């Protein structure tokens, strides 16, 4: 770690660093970023409301504890017209009255697909899949699944390299 460029704050339970351990691997390997950008382009052409895709991204990032992606998710959601009221309630969407049935189906799919190690039996139970399939066609489901997968991909990269919240790519 290049300590000259980093500031570390330690509390009783956590350590927060203001610089990542290294550059994002997707930026280090340019061909990786080209592929990722193509997936994002296809995903946003999948017919899903961008607000739903942003909610999916935010919820997966919350589950995985990725501060950089939570920060980016809130920023992206606001750019797509999301309200503070709803953003504050994403972590408790089950109990919050602010989400449509379609959004709930996408959020449930997000949680199941993100928490695959927490399940016995199927990673995504049939009831969750069926609820999502009732609201989205195959192209839209593909876009949502790709958002879940890419978010989990970046959550793992960013938590490993300790990418700080507020980083822009």
Q: In words, what does this structure look like?
A:
The protein has helices at residues 25-28, 30-44, 50-64, 67-79, 84-89, 101-114, 126-135, 138-161; strands spanning 8-10, 15-17. It has 169 residues and is mostly helical. Helix content is 60%, strand content 4%. The protein contains eight helices and two strands, in the order E-E-H-H-H-H-H-H-H-H. Helix 2 runs antiparallel to helix 8, helix 3 (50-64) packs parallel to helix 6 and helix 6 crosses helix 8. It has a two-stranded antiparallel sheet with strand order 1-2.
Please give the alpha-carbon distance between the first and last residues: 20 Å
Secondary-structure class: mainly alpha
Overall morphology: globular
Strand portion: under 5%
The biggest sheet amounts to:
2 strands, antiparallel
Number of helices: 8
- What fraction, in percent, of the residue positions are helical? 55-70%
| Main β-sheet, spatial strand arrangement | 1-2
Low-confidence stretches: 1-12
Mean pLDDT: 89
- How many strands appear in the DSSP assignment? 2
A few lines on this structure:
This protein has 169 residues and is mostly helical.
Q: Helices, strands, pairings?
A:
Layout: E1 8-10, E2 15-17, H1 25-28, H2 30-44, H3 50-64, H4 67-79, H5 84-89, H6 101-114, H7 126-135, H8 138-161
Antiparallel strand pairs: 1-2
């Amino acid at each position: 770690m290049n300590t000259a460029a980093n500031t570390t704050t330690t509390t009783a339970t956590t350590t927060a660093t203001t610089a990542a351990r290294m550059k994002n691997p997707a930026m280090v390997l340019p061909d990786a970023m080209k592929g990722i950008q193509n997936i994002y382009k296809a995903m946003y052409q999948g017919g899903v409301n961008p607000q739903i895709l942003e909610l999916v991204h935010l919820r997966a990032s919350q589950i995985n504890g990725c501060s950089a992606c939570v920060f980016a998710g809130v920023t992206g959601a606001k750019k797509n017209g999301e309200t503070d009221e709803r953003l504050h309630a994403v972590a408790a969407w089950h109990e919050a009255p602010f989400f449509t049935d379609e959004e709930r189906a996408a959020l449930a799919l997000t949680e199941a697909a993100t928490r695959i190690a927490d399940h016995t039996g199927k990673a995504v139970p049939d009831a969750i899949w069926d609820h999502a399939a009732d609201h989205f066609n195959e192209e839209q489901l593909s876009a949502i699944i790709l958002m879940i997968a890419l978010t989990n991909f970046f959550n793992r990269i960013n938590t490993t390299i300790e990418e700080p919240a507020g980083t822009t790519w």
